[in-house]
């Protein structure tokens, strides 16, 4: 199959490279000259484990290419995937669909007969209807289909998620679109990955509902963690006790500083707006959004409190981890932003280290001393706080940490360490839900 991917961001580049690895011919198109130039030079603009090798392999095989020119890419396309950004719209929280609609309008006069246009971007219910209307308006005689194929990729594990998915969801309103997408995903269905076919609107809502439910699990266990601290028990035991129930499952039950990233914050807000538009309010999701917003800031206050409350002014904290999760350089809505800002508001100086995210962090966090490694960040600090669960922070030399810190205080917002091990080295140890 000949596939065109509009957008070379996280979803577009990962999806395009994986489709090419299945044997399809893929052209990725982007308006950003610097992105295309970098990709043509073998440089990957995002950090995702294994992506650079996958892209290089398929470029060398001639199955994957990059261009700025839509007219060059579209004439032989069987399917065109729209994988552009849908950020929260400033002011009201709705998903900003301007990039999706602009792509539809620009491609319409260039589309070949029988093409299937597929929304890969995360879009609210009804977006496919509008994409179809735009294309029909711009190319009234064209025979085409519009489908929805939401992505369920975790940053840091995206390639494995794409190639070994829990399910592939396609939303179609005609048999031709269904046949084309079935052929595109045939390499997966031969490996028994379930292909779930539903209406286009059903697929659009499935993506938002999935992300909202996972966000709910995160906020739920974070609130249970706070209760565990009050009643004197360990949230890890409680999470295990409920997670072994097959109706609940053990994933997304790790307490921490709240969710962030490119999906959960904007998608929960967009789902709330959809509910309001259709006069079907989503009270649980409203509570999840509010709980998470409060959670991130409260983690900064937790560190300040551990340092003695009013005695923290002028002290220094070493922040280990800045990205919203490990194995990515993504700083979007990272809990570390709120934690660092809360520390700075309390008069605390911040030194920080992250294995991949410091360049991105520097764009959103001011007056932070960025260090070349965890021990450089710890040197001379009055306390250490682990914000992101990078593997590089799971087995730090506690004796060396103690010798570098002015006072042996470790605030572990990811529960990476056992209290016994840390306290045996003479630390004061503050965890989450313990």
From TrEMBL:
SUPFAM superfamilies: 6-phosphogluconate dehydrogenase C-terminal domain-like, NAD(P)-binding Rossmann-fold domains, UDP-glucose/GDP-mannose dehydrogenase C-terminal domain. The keyword Thylakoid does not apply. Pathway: Nucleotide-sugar biosynthesis; UDP-alpha-D-glucuronate biosynthesis; UDP-alpha-D-glucuronate from UDP-alpha-D-glucose: step 1/1. Substrate binds at residues 152-155, 207, 252-256, 260, 325. This is UDP-glucose 6-dehydrogenase. Residues 318-419 form the UDP-glucose/GDP-mannose dehydrogenase C-terminal domain. NCBIfam families: NDP-sugDHase. Keywords: NAD, Oxidoreductase. Its EC number is 1.1.1.22. NAD(+) binds at residues 30, 35, 86, 122, 155, 266, 332. The active site is at 263 (nucleophile). Transmembrane segments: none annotated. GO terms for molecular function: NAD binding; UDP-glucose 6-dehydrogenase activity. One of its GO terms (biological process) is polysaccharide biosynthetic process. Belongs to the UDP-glucose/GDP-mannose dehydrogenase family. It is an enzyme of class 1 (oxidoreductase). It catalyses: UDP-alpha-D-glucose + 2 NAD(+) + H2O = UDP-alpha-D-glucuronate + 2 NADH + 3 H(+). Catalyzes the conversion of UDP-glucose into UDP-glucuronate, one of the precursors of teichuronic acid.
């Amino acid at each position: 199959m000949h596939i065109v991917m509009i957008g070379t961001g996280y979803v577009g580049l990962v999806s395009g490279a994986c489709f090419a690895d299945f044997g399809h011919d893929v052209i990725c198109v982007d308006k950003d000259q610097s992105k295309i130039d970098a990709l043509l030079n073998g440089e990957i603009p995002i950090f995702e484990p294994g992506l650079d090798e996958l892209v290089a392999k398929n470029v060398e095989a001639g199955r994957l290419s990059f261009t700025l020119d839509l007219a060059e890419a579209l004439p032989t396309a069987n399917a065109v995937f729209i994988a552009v950004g849908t950020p929260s719209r400033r002011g009201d929280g709705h998903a900003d669909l301007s990039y999706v609609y602009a792509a539809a309008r620009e491609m319409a006069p260039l589309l070949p007969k029988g093409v299937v246009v597929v929304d890969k971007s995360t879009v609210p219910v009804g977006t496919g209807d509008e994409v179809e209307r735009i294309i029909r308006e711009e190319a009234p005689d064209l025979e085409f289909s519009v489908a929805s194929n939401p992505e369920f990729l975790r940053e840091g594990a995206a390639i494995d998620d794409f190639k070994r998915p829990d399910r592939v969801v396609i939303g179609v309103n005609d048999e031709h679109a269904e046949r084309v997408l079935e052929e595109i995903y045939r390499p997966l269905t031969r490996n028994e990955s379930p292909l779930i076919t539903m209406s286009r609107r059903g697929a659009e809502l499935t993506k938002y509902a999935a992300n909202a439910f996972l966000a709910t699990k995160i906020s739920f266990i974070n609130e249970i963690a706070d209760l565990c601290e009050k009643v004197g028990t360990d949230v890890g035991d409680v999470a295990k006790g409920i997670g072994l129930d097959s109706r609940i499952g053990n994933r997304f039950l790790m307490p921490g500083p709240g969710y962030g990233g490119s999906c959960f914050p904007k998608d929960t807000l967009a789902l709330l707006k959809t509910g309001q538009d259709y006069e079907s309010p989503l009270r649980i999701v409203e509570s999840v959004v509010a709980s998470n917003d409060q959670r991130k800031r409260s983690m900064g206050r937790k560190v300040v409190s551990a340092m003695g409350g009013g005695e923290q002014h002028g002290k220094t904290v070493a922040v280990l981890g800045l990205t919203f999760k490990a194995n990515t350089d993504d700083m979007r809505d990272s809990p570390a932003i709120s934690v660092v800002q809360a520390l700075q508001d309390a008069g605390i100086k911040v030194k920080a280290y992250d294995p991949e995210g410091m360049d991105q962090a520097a764009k959103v966090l001011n007056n932070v001393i960025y260090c070349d490694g965890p021990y450089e960040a710890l040197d001379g600090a009055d306390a250490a706080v682990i914000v992101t669960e990078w593997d590089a922070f799971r087995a730090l030399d506690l004796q060396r940490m103690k010798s570098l810190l002015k006072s042996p205080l470790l605030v572990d917002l990811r529960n990476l360490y056992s209290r016994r091990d840390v306290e045996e080295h003479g630390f004061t140890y503050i965890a989450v839900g313990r």
